[in-house]
UniProtKB/TrEMBL annotation:
Residues 373-463 form the Putative collagen-binding domain. PANTHER family: ENDOGLUCANASE, LMO1036 PROTEIN. Coiled coil: none annotated. Pfam families: Apiosidase, Collagen_bind_2. Residues 33-369 form the Apiosidase-like catalytic domain. This is DUF4038 domain-containing protein. SUPFAM superfamilies: (Trans)glycosidases. InterPro entries: Apiosidase-like_cat_dom, Collagen-bd_put, GH.
Amino acid sequence: MLKKITYIVLLLATVGLAFIPVKQAVLPGIKISENSRYFTADNKPFFWLGDTGWLLFSKLNRAEAEKYLEARRRQGFNVIQVMVIHDIKETNFYGDSALVASNIAKPKVTEGSNPASATEYDYWDHVDYIVDLAAQKGLYMALVPVWGSVVKSKNHDVPADKAKVYADFLAKRYKDRSNVIWMNGGDIAGSDSTKVWNTIGSTLRAENPDKLITYHPRGRTQSSTWFHNEKWLDFNTFQSGHRTYAQDTSKKDLKYGEDNWKYVNVDYNKTPVKPTLDAEPSYEKIPYGLHDVKLPRWKAADVRRYGYWSVFAGACGYTYGNNDVMQMHKRTDKGSAYGSKEYWYQSINDPGAQQMIYLKKLMLSRSYYDRMPDQSLIAGKQGTRYNYLLATRGKNYAFVYTYTGKKFVVNTNSLPGNKIKSSWFNPRTGVITAGVTQAKTKTISFNPPGEPKNGNDWVLILDAV
């Protein structure tokens, strides 16, 4: 009998049915800072460090969800971006359908089911469970109600009237979940199905006045192009995308190439002032341009570059992504997208993911709300493409990021005091070299450690003395 009981417990654990019930945890609501540039939570700076877990709800069982969320918590992430419905025929790991007869206006809710039960739950209870589990771990969930491809489908599965019913269902179901952020859209231009996106956004705003709402656009575009002045949009995001400079040939999009800091520049100068961030840069281990799996793949150095470039340009945070993790590639899958070769539970510890916490810690290491981009700190040429230098400063400090580690010159006029302390921050390890204090002159030349090359990135830290 003992052997039989042990076998059953092991079997349940294997399929994800053995878990500890979760209670709702109340996290402090995220708000816009007083200067409208950043986020704050519980009257403290909140630096958005997101991970892309798009298919978390549909692909992972409860034991796997626990493993994923715990890993990201330990790595310092605080926001998970996830699709609620990726397909009009959406089902989850357990075979539960999200909708009745693929009707977006009819979520398939089982009356009397228990989100924390080992067996008595439906698709939405499973979503509840994971959202609550994330809250227990201090993680916020940026939920995409319905992916853009579903709305754009030839069958017109999501007209505005049905979208309103669905958005009302979501807003009422998650109004008391303090860790929910709404991410309208989903890899689609706001000019496509604009009425649907505005309907979803305004419905969510009416029912959830205390929750933040944004929009996730298609590659090489930004939400502010279409929705900056909409009352439902609290902050902007952009998708700098997965293409290289050479692949940036679309006539419809801005020719920014890999320069994701340019999107921040545009949003930063818009009124009314709203926070902005890169919600989908190139993912670690995804092929250049996505579709040709024979091409090279983006590496940790690339995701670091996108992070520091955008944040130093004035972004309120940054979202990391990994090819294997975003699609939750598993051994049981019949195939994979974008040439994914490894499984999510292997790639969750890839170098880029582990290095993101250093960006977060650096930005929280100095005064936060007074930070601003300041390219006047760069004396002389700022460089182009990979040699481009990004500078940001607060009242008594400044950071300068170089991706290639080439020598550069800094104009110190923006910093107070007669002396200046300089040190080097390593984005790969988070280690800071011992500082050197010297008299402040009009310009000072700095030579980063190591040989100049792509990926020999450093942050120069300057503190006024």
